[in-house]
Amino acid sequence: MQSPCGANSGAENFKNRFIMWKGRFSQDTSSLVQQFGESISYDWRLFPHDIAGSIAHARAQSKAGLLTEKEFSEIENGLRKIEKEIEGGTFEFRTSLEDIHMNIEAELTKRIGAAGAKLHTARSRNDQVATDTRLYCRTEIDGLIGAILGLQKALLDRAEKYAATVIPGYTHLQRGQPVTAGHHFLAYVEMLERDKSRLTDCRKRLNISPLGSGALAGSTINLDRRAMAAELGFDGVTHNSMDAIADRDYMAELLFVISLCGVHLSRLSEDLILWCSAEFAFAALSDAHTTGSSLTCRRKKTLMSVN
Amino acid sequence: MQSPCGANSGAENFKNRFIMWKGRFSQDTSSLVQQFGESISYDWRLFPHDIAGSIAHARAQSKAGLLTEKEFSEIENGLRKIEKEIEGGTFEFRTSLEDIHMNIEAELTKRIGAAGAKLHTARSRNDQVATDTRLYCRTEIDGLIGAILGLQKALLDRAEKYAATVIPGYTHLQRGQPVTAGHHFLAYVEMLERDKSRLTDCRKRLNISPLGSGALAGSTINLDRRAMAAELGFDGVTHNSMDAIADRDYMAELLFVISLCGVHLSRLSEDLILWCSAEFAFAALSDAHTTGSSLTCRRKKTLMSVN
Amino acid sequence: MQSPCGANSGAENFKNRFIMWKGRFSQDTSSLVQQFGESISYDWRLFPHDIAGSIAHARAQSKAGLLTEKEFSEIENGLRKIEKEIEGGTFEFRTSLEDIHMNIEAELTKRIGAAGAKLHTARSRNDQVATDTRLYCRTEIDGLIGAILGLQKALLDRAEKYAATVIPGYTHLQRGQPVTAGHHFLAYVEMLERDKSRLTDCRKRLNISPLGSGALAGSTINLDRRAMAAELGFDGVTHNSMDAIADRDYMAELLFVISLCGVHLSRLSEDLILWCSAEFAFAALSDAHTTGSSLTCRRKKTLMSVN
Amino acid sequence: MQSPCGANSGAENFKNRFIMWKGRFSQDTSSLVQQFGESISYDWRLFPHDIAGSIAHARAQSKAGLLTEKEFSEIENGLRKIEKEIEGGTFEFRTSLEDIHMNIEAELTKRIGAAGAKLHTARSRNDQVATDTRLYCRTEIDGLIGAILGLQKALLDRAEKYAATVIPGYTHLQRGQPVTAGHHFLAYVEMLERDKSRLTDCRKRLNISPLGSGALAGSTINLDRRAMAAELGFDGVTHNSMDAIADRDYMAELLFVISLCGVHLSRLSEDLILWCSAEFAFAALSDAHTTGSSLTCRRKKTLMSVN
Fold it and tell me: ipTM of the assembly?
């Protein structure tokens, strides 16, 4: 599709996903068990969320008197510096440190000493995993909603342009009743509207802070769970620590919602493929959007230009 | 689980799903093509929704002057009588009439003549399929929400009874921190709460009337879509006929939500299986709820009775 | 497709799957637990295999001196009579007896007394489930191979008829290189040949007798496992009782193989749908094979008649 | 598990899969369409197979008189050098060249000129994709069979060691009949034997050369398909070009077989998790194989050491 201005955010969003990872990984010393158990090779993506979560946790520790103001400041500055280095591709991840949580915490402690080690007080790695993955999914959902909105705007643009273009409506690919191309494009706007609605419902269910659930049974040290949740943009806090730590419903739900959206995009693609065939010849894609094979002979005149 | 009064509706609901179908099917004359194409052997379940939809449609036809009051009355009474016969198991379904929609319409027309045939005006079978399946899913959702609520009440009952019973909390089935059995039961109440929330969101998205979408491009005869929707308990009407006729998102979403609920029930069952083992011996099921094999030796003393 | 004589067995096979079940089920007295635990409503299909397995088992018991010749004869005759009644739709299944194994055994014992009860010696229900489901899958595989062979013959018939008919070959639905319709049909013959090969491999792996595995640890009474296997058409006997009882690999494998065959049939159907469209107009289906909607306008002249 | 000598190949095989990719990717100039269409970021893995396939093709071209001996030699040496560079991590992949096939061919042509460009004669990219992915799957299958064999040997080692160790056999996790731990371990040897058998059958079906199928309809230039197949270790050549180019059955089949093997490994893992629990306490894992959490208290005395 052409990029009507409204679609830019979607396209940008999409393009950003393709920026390749520049981090360095060291794993020479890791054993078979370490290799099997490590997750840093894929959970490095959680780094901004892990750092945000750690800062919120440290702030709550500080308010509870577990950290001095100076210690909190060292932690926050140390984490921000690590974040910059990861973004810049200069941070070295170690497979022997297993995951993103340990990689960041170990490096922080190496750099600022005792204060870094205090971060672990009243928090378990399970807390971090549960918090980080919720924040990660939330960010992805926001990106997807933006991308879908961009596609809807592009479809509306086409629907307006071809509002009066009459094409066959098919049942079982047999011509049934005439429709307008605009009506056809708007059907997809409806489908995508449901996808956005499902993403929003999924976001609502996952946007609750598990921080404070501990390994599974909470912690004897009481931190301000609501303050941590608010700092991280959560709408509330979870009620049951055993459920909060083990819950992965939001991942399953998000994967379902994305898959169903994929079905809609696949249907749209199939329509375009049919329309661009020599036999249908309803539409053509611009050369800029086709890589084509040497075998492909392009159509000269079609009803619509769909991109 | 014991049946605290609150759980009854769920149990009833469940039991009703097991009532076997007593309808009679005639298919002697059907050819291979008919056998391949028929859906009456499973879509007979849609009958109450098909009849409700047809009455709403006929009422709208009547208001639009397409039916006389007498004709509408004949249609409504004819359909109600057919409904009773299907419920009573005396209605004879014909495979040669393909589906529930044709079986009912053909029988109605045979019984009341011309008026019956008029039902098809300004409506297509696609309309009926889309309407009936939405109503069917809505009814199932309402039943499931009731059943889940019953299970939650039973879990709350156990949580209260064993609020002070300390058991191990496990990570990777290694004893981690002590928890109360009540806390453990309440984790499931949370999971089921999310399941209900997902069912409710799914219901919201599907409860929109497609009636009036025709085969795919609407109808030249304008019936009062909002009145029909209101009569059938829909919250609104669909916007795009091509989308409304082809949309099966709600089925995929409902299947996903049920599957995820099944994961929760499977996890609960696994806990009960572990707890009822000789090695854990935390709980026992009453004889009334175990069919058992001759090999099974039952535990004498356990921490909990979970049913 | 036309029915070239070779395809008849496939069509017959297919038609037979549609014969509806005429058995009578009684379940008035069953409780919720019984309803949850019963499998007779779907495992009644195993009846010929359960009866064949019981006769083989009884013969082995007889050879081992566990049954007199008279007792064996009573058992065999009793089981054959029950089989006839089930086939004739006059046998009454009881939900309270849970499954096909218990329904048959209880009825047999009711009819012939003590001898019937002896059938259970040196055999567990797990033995029966494992044996019956393997025999059931084997029978289905044989039916499927026959049906696929029929379709291959029909495709060969079309390939021969249209061996010189030139049509476009497509990549991404863009015309690529010309091919003959015969070449196109033969591509499907290849796919189906792989499906048959996969069915044959699956059959090879499942066609091993688990009889004698007991509940999970075999039996202290040694029956002639190889003789029972030979009587039931198995190629050998399983090696490990715990594996034999729990193994359901063959079901998963068969479902995969059927699904992949379904993908091929779906691709073939999609080709026919495209070819029968007004835009492609390469082929037409005879009226005998289309149910159609009132909207469908049939093509007059096409390159091929594909059925 | 301990590494009895027989298991080493499996462990090595497994370890090798974790060696991280050191190749360099350049993509600065690529547009959104290029980013969407590129596959080099994952199909670089095909490089040894693409190179082997190209050498076999060039040799056939040479025999057919399409290449001089000198040209063939330049192509072979050029490809071998590129292979070494990719293995050494010094080859630069370009996203703008889309996939592994174009990356290698473009670089070869840049280095040796005209001869490189001739490689494309009588071959299409579809040929390469179909050939490379078959060779890739074949190599993976051989690795998996080796790894499974290693695990079977380790299981046999445990089965021998604990041949007389009596443990409960369970049905529904209720103690049923006593079995030996050796018998239990051997059940897994059986499951894995079936997995190997399925891998072997899958290998048999995929090990047929599609080279010479062209884009979909073969080539007007006849190369010696059987010689190319033999050089690449294929057992034969495909019969139908349209099927050969589009066939992805072997991928679906391999994924199914691996998934089912995964089910067996998951069941084995579940057994070990149960056995290592404080409640069962049948077995313990050595510290070398557990990463554990700080919460885990290890068992002192158990029946078995399972690794």
Answer: 0.90
